[in-house]
Amino acid sequence: MAEYLFRIFRYDPEKDEGTKGRVQEYKVDVQEGWTLLDVLVHIKWFMDGTLTFRRACSHGICGSCGMTINGKNGLACETQIKDLGTQVITVEPLRGFRVIKDLVVDMEPFYDKLYAVKPYLITYTPPPSDRERLQSPEDRKLLDGKYECLLCGCCTSSCPTYWADKDFLGPCALLKAAKFSLDSRDEGWAERVNVIDDKHGIWRCHTIFNCVEACPKDLNPTKAIVELRRMALRGRL
């Protein structure tokens, strides 16, 4: 085991309201193979039961434990302590979102923007009676790099445009819009285009690529936004 110092952002709305929060330090003997989530659970269970954070699957699937780790967004459950390369580790809530308590942020505005782009298959043609809606391997390949999104918020939180413009849909919502707009079975472009083809939509992105660096699944929301721009300019041809 090796001792690490964890500097964790703390904010209690009952005690810290009106302040920018505070930093609390914990010294932890980290066992071989521990992730940051393991450390946070250890602190909560054995050192400080008031520490608050989100978690669920612990396997990089649900996206619940997104946070800022040494200045970079990521999933606590996928972050190996030994890979951080330092004995002092700073943990903060995702930036750009209102802090509810400690490492927990208000995701409602994030979800509202996701709902706005209608992230589901829209069809008007009746389905075949004897089979599913077919899709060619080539059309299916267009969805690679888009369906794997966890909705963790790491990309949107890392986006300077979102920091400056809270009406910006953000890279996650636009990635989801691309996923369904590029689906050969989808017929909902006319319903989505008025939302995404907007000054707070695809044209607000400044291609800074922070979202690409922050994505724990190595997705490329910027590329998806560029694809949506092409579709908007060509009328989805």
Structure description:
With 237 residues, the chain is an alpha+beta fold. It has 2 domains: 2-105, Beta-grasp domain (Ubiquitin-like (UB roll)), CATH 3.10.20; 108-234, Orthogonal Bundle (Fumarate Reductase Iron-sulfur Protein, Chain B, domain 2), CATH 1.10.1060. The protein is 31% helix and 15% strand. The protein has helices at residues 36-46, 108-116, 137-141, 154-157, 160-164, 170-181, 189-196, 210-214, 221-234; strands spanning 2-10, 22-30, 66-69, 72-75, 88-92, 99-101, 104-105. The strands form 2 sheets. A 5-stranded mixed sheet has the order 2-1-5-3-4. A two-stranded antiparallel sheet has the order 6-7. Strand 6 (99-101) and strand 7 form a beta hairpin. Helix 2 runs parallel beside helix 6 (170-181) and helix 6 crosses helix 9. The protein starts with a strand and ends with a helix. The model has no long low-confidence stretch (mean pLDDT 96).
Give a topology summary.
Layout: E1 2-10, E2 22-30, H1 36-46, E3 66-69, E4 72-75, E5 88-92, E6 99-101, E7 104-105, H2 108-116, H3 137-141, H4 154-157, H5 160-164, H6 170-181, H7 189-196, H8 210-214, H9 221-234
Parallel strand pairs: 1-5
Antiparallel strand pairs: 1-2, 3-4, 3-5, 6-7
Helix pairs in contact: 2-6, 6-9
